[in-house]
Amino acid sequence: MFTRKLGRSGIEVSAVGMGCWAIGGPFWSGDTPVGWGEIDDAESIRAVHRALDLGANFFDTADVYGAGHSERVLAQAFEGRRDQIVIATKFGNTFDEDPKQMTGSNADPDYIRAACEGSLRRLNTDYIDLYQFHLNGYDPAKAPEVRDTLEDLVAQGKIRAYGWSTDFLPGARVFAQGEHCTAIQHDQSVLQDNAKMIALVEELNLASINRGPLAMGLLTGKYTAASNLPKNDVRGEDAPEWMQYFKDGKPNPVFLKKMEAIREILTSEGRTLAQGALAWLWARSEKTIPIPGFKTVQQVEDNCGAMAYGPLTAAQMQEIETILGRG
Fold this sequence. Notes:
By secondary structure, this protein is an alpha/beta fold. It is 35% helix and 19% strand.
């Protein structure tokens, strides 16, 4: 199987991980949807089992996804198979499970410890492989306290390693000073390269966990200029301000145009468009571990199927950079 190391931890994971945001189902921040629409828990569990059968062992979730629901679904799927998987989850966003509402954020040490216990209960496990700070723009000057609390959780055996889901270099550098920091999760796709973060993780021997590897679904090729996303979808017309790949419930034409310009390269050698997007990420750096989301068995099969093809060639990578005006 095609595997990669999870940064300095040395933990071996499948080269493609499974992003578990969508299987949490709908949840909201006030009136703003932050989930991916309706889900079928039975299909989610079948999809997780199929991923395991196809060699994927790395599953990335967060306590806030579905206001705890994603972690609970994963616990059902992993029953009796905990030793076969590497679980990554996140903390920092507060939420209320019953109304499925985000309620704020908290990075105090006592809260982090309580959040960890909450995730352990929902996941029905006694340890978390990778525990990630979920507040993207948190003040780097305050980050050492968060980092040191996570080191304490490692010492207690609650977590094996930790990281930060952030697109900002200063915070990433602060966390990397910790012995057991092993990963930075950041936005990264063929349509949106974060070259400075890639350079940083390579310098510091950290894993680059790629969220948005399929540009929030755009790189699956199933959306056109005429597509409309439902209101309870994070990409719909009430989407949060940070949503860049979709605007007013439709694919952003800027990114659609870029996708079409490189479609032929990404679908070379018989790959699907999504498989080509993952192949670009693997070729981008030996540190990258993309975590495409899924709701169905079919999506899992497509994503895991990318591992059979491996990375794009250096020539293909250069051609894409030239077409997109980055080379």
